[in-house]
Write a structure and sequence with these properties.
65% of the residues lie in helices and 0% in strands. It is mostly helical and 348 residues long. It has one domain.
Length: 348
């Protein structure tokens, strides 16, 4: 893209700057539109599971419902509690939303279609996603209210607990692929299963890690059945109880952007990313970004399916699953996979 702007007569510095801004907008704007539509899809899936209609009034088939809701919260008054720390109270949702967008900088949508193709892309995603806990904790503390503070502490413990397991799961993928670069991880999955299936999920050693990663993804994003941060029976609405207007909307947008990110990581790390599901020449006629979006929506459908059908865990069950089941299992699997790779001569 830099070369394109240079052809228009710009010098290299301005061409690079313009290309970078254009790349950011090409990711951020469609992502925010996708978040609006995915909220609509979420509500429609829940409704279908419960034999209801879901949004069907605003726009054709109710497609504009999310935009109507967005306009509604935008026009509402922003109320800041008198006892709150006003500066931190305002900054917290901005931090959550911004961090949710930053991780998409290294996500490859197609071969070469990535804003920043860095060698440590997977480490970058892990580091950026872990920063989301700051927006949550600051919101709970700055509200100066009991229930948001309890929810923030609960959310922080939950996110940190499952990030540990996710870290070991990612180590398993990195060991097998031999790289932290997300594009190279996708390429390593080409024909991985019997020379025909594109994806690490077909690998008997890595399939259990995908199951753990998928469940941890739901826990990391506080989706049901792990939505203990918004357990209305004891915490009202969670750490955003005191928020209104666009501040509240930013938390929703950030939450769904994180859900889409986790769906994208499931596709990239275990299901071949932008590769077609099978290594057949005819399937490559379909552009890679279409395969990538289909896989993201497939995982999002499972997220919604689980939310509509599985009852919420108790908090002690949530923490026990993270620390006493997932952590030792994923650590054992790191030893198992590294031992297998050493025994079979994959390491030089």
């Amino acid at each position: 893209m830099t070369a394109f702007f240079q052809d228009l007569g710009m010098n290299y510095e301005w061409a690079w700057f313009t290309a970078t801004i254009a790349g950011i907008l090409l990711i951020a704007l469609p992502l925010m539109l996708a978040v609006a539509m995915i909220i609509y899809a979420d509500r429609k899936i829940w409704a279908a599971m419960a034999l209801r209609r879901g949004p069907n009034v605003v726009g054709p088939f109710g497609l504009l419902q999310s935009f109507a809701d967005g306009l509604k919260v935008f026009l509402q008054e922003t109320i800041i509690p008198s006892a709150a720390n006003k500066g931190l109270f305002i900054i917290a949702p901005i931090v959550t939303f911004t961090v949710a967008l930053l991780a998409w900088a290294v996500i490859p949508f197609n071969s070469g279609a990535v804003l920043a193709d860095i060698n440590v892309g997977l480490l970058y995603v892990l580091a950026i996603s872990s920063l989301g806990v700051y927006g949550v904790v600051v919101a709970g503390w700055a509200s100066n209210s009991k229930y948001p503070f309890f929810s923030a502490m609960r959310a922080a413990a939950q996110m940190i607990s499952y990030e540990v397991s996710i870290g070991f799961i990612l180590i398993c993928v990195v060991l097998w692929a031999g790289t932290f670069n997300l594009n190279d991880i996708i390429q390593a999955q080409r024909g991985h299963g019997l020379g025909l299936v594109n994806g690490f999920w077909f690998n008997l050693l890595l399939f259990p890690m995908w199951v753990l990663f998928f469940i941890s993804s739901m826990a990391e994003t506080a989706r049901a059945p792990f939505d203990l941060t918004e357990a209305e029976s004891e915490l009202v609405a969670g750490y955003q109880t005191e928020y209104s207007s666009m501040s509240f909307a930013l938390y929703w947008l950030g939450e769904y952007a994180n859900v889409l990110l986790m769906c994208a990581l499931n596709a990239i790390l275990f299901f071949g990313g932008w590769l077609p599901p099978l290594e057949l020449e005819i399937l490559y006629w379909i552009p890679g970004w279409i395969w990538f979006f289909v896989k993201i929506f497939f995982f999002f459908f499972i997220f919604s399916w689980v939310k509509a059908t599985v009852p919420r865990f108790r908090y002690d069950q949530l923490m026990r699953l993270g620390w006493k089941v997932f952590l030792p299992f994923s650590l054992l699997w790191v030893v198992l996979i590294s031992g297998y790779l050493m025994a079979t001569g994959h390491y030089v």
